[in-house]
Predict the structure.
Amino acid sequence: SVEPIEENLLAWQVEEAMRRIGEDHRRILVETYYRGRPYAEVSGELGIPVGTVKSRVYYALRSLRIALEAIGYED
């Protein structure tokens, strides 16, 4: 099991990494990953094609991983 201190550290690292990625990437991850909204719904709300939502999610996750590595996160 994960210790509370480790959980808090991970939460801080993810929060810090989210701050470091671009606004478009941050928003797309919040809407699709954290809020669990369908790509089509987010696409309609943002006025962008579903394919653009998919590619933004891909690049946002890549940016997030790079940001996490920069602050010392190891999985």
In short: The chain has four helices and no strands. Residues 17 and 65 are 8 Å apart (CA to CA).
